[in-house]
Amino acid sequence: MTEKIICVTPNAALDRTLVVPDFAVGHISRISRGVVVPGGKGLNMMRAVKILGGHPLSMGLLGGHTGRMVAAMVGEAGYEAEWTWFDGETRTCTIIANADGVSTVINESGQVGSADWRALADDVCRVAESQSARTICFCGSLPEGAPADAPADVIERLKALGKRVWIDSSGRALGNAIAAAPFAIKVNAEELAAVMHVDAQKRREVIDAAASLLNNGIQIVVISLGAEGALLFAKEAFVKATPPVIEPVDPIASGDCLHAGIVTALARGASHAEAIRSGVAAGAVNALYAGGAQFGYRHYLQVLSETRVENLKR
Hints:
37% helix, four-stranded mixed sheet, ten-stranded mixed sheet, alpha/beta
């Protein structure tokens, strides 16, 4: 049976992306096109995993009319999902992309109770144990109201079940996760620097901080470098992948597609070098499309063929 990849979005959203070539604050503009999709990092990852030939199972907290819209859109698109419902309203986020490929993001904050988080944790552990899923990815911010120790609580439970937990988050949630030593983390340099108390502008400090995490039980650390590509650290590997130069349309969700490309490749048995190359190609091709994880597979293969990988020395 093909392994399922559980993509957890604790703070899901309805994302509305507007392509506004002449966008400027204080001016009236007309959009050239708009895209409305289920949003949040795990839902972006879900779409990318499917495009790349993987088998995602989406989970997360949903509530209210907007939550029902998100669930309906995911189901109608043919994705498998197991939702945890809460007594509230799922947030809405607006992304405005201009002619230069620069996006302005306006995010609402999610709000749940601690009991809602515990319900999500219980559901994720139940599904992870019952499904053919070894990899569980917690993606994005935590909603306001999540317990102070989240997501370390659920990481410990999933590790006890023998699952590989990936974390893509920031701030306190990332710090809590690192303390619980998940299988892997995927971050950018600024996010890692903030929790490790190093200078994000000093690449050597960031690299040393990432390498130090491998001594604390984390097996893989991925650092996104934006247009430069990404670094992957493991006990037996230190690899950089660099994408071709592109003219971005909308870079939103490129980090989520990077994550999807790596995890999907590893689930197929790819090497670390192949996985980071797949992830960087997915992140780059995503930036050529509006809406987050809306790219075509053939276009991905083209970008993949132009993505370079090099083994580095620490």
